[in-house]
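Case study 2.
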Amino acid sequence: MRVLLVAPSAGDPAHRRVLQSLGKQFARAGTSVSVHAPRSARDLERALARLRPDVCHLHYFSRGFAFLDRVRFPPGTNLVVTHQGASTSLLERPGTFRRVARLAARTTAVSRAGVRELRARFPELATRLACVPNGTDLPPSPARSARRPVVLAVGRVAAYKGIDILLMAFAGAARRVPGLRLEICGPDQMGGRMRRFARALGLDGKARFLGRRSPAATLRLMRTSLLLAHPSRRENMPMAVLEAMAAGLPVVATRVGGVPDAVAHGRSGLLVAPRDAAALERAIVRLSTDADLRGRLSAAARSRAERFSWSAVAARYRSLYADVLRERGVPRGRS
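Prediction:
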C-alpha cells in the first residue's frame, strides 16, 4: 500500500507532528509512505502524479490549504480527509473543506465530538464518517524528581485556547499558593495581547510566555512541572493533553470537544466547565497543594495515554485505508 500524507504546513508544530509521527509508524509497519506539505495546487498535483498513491490522506486543520479548491485530483484518487481543527466553526474556508470531504471515500475526525460536529454541519457526509483520535509518543517513565512549582500550558496562544481564562484563574491561584508560577509554551497568534493582559493582572514575574519550543524541550517542561492547564473554549483532540498524560503530568482541562475522551474526571485528570475562571482556579489550587492526588492522577494518566499511542492510531488508519481500497476494488496485491 502506498500512502501520501498531506498537511498544510511543515512549519506548524502540530501539522509537522502529525505527518512525522504517522509517517514513522506507517514505515515501521511496512507501508510505503510519503509526507508532503504542498505550497500550491500544482505542487500537490505533481506529488500525486509522481507518487501515484493508493491513498491520499489530507489532514485538514482550521488554517491553510487555501489552494485546495483548485486541485485537480486524478480520476480514481482514494481520498481520506481528517478534520484536525478545534471546531468546524473555526474553519477559514468551510466551502473548501466541504468540497474535498465530498470527494473523499472517508472523512474522519480526531474525536467523537468532532464526528458529531461534522454530521451536524455537513449532513451529506454522514454515511462516510469515522473517528480516529490523535496520538502521542510514549516516552520512558522518568525517574522521580522534584517538581518545580509551575503550572504549564502548552499550545498556540489563540483566542479559542482560553489563555485569558487561565491568566485570571492563575492570578487567584497564585494568591492562595505562595511561589506558584505559570509558564505558557507555544506560538503567539494574538500579537502580544495575552502578555499585556498578564501585566494588567499583576502577573509580572509570575507568568512567563516561552514561545515555541521543540518537542524535546516541551517534554522536559512537562516532566518538571506540577500540572498542565488546558483551558480551551473549543477543542477536538488536543495533542498537548495526550502528551502531558503520556509524560505522567496531571491535567486540568475544560470539558470541551474530545477532551473527555482522553481525560476521565477524577481518575486521570480534572475537568472543569469552559470559561469558568473560578472553577479552573479551584482545580489548580487543589492539584497544586495535594501531592497524593497528583501522584494518583499521574499514574492513571500515563496508563490511559497508552490507548492513544501513535502506533495504535496508525494501525486504525491502516485498517480504514484497507476498507476503502476493498470497497473501491483495488487488487488485493496492492493493499
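The domain at 150-308 is CATH 3.40.50.2000 (Rossmann fold).
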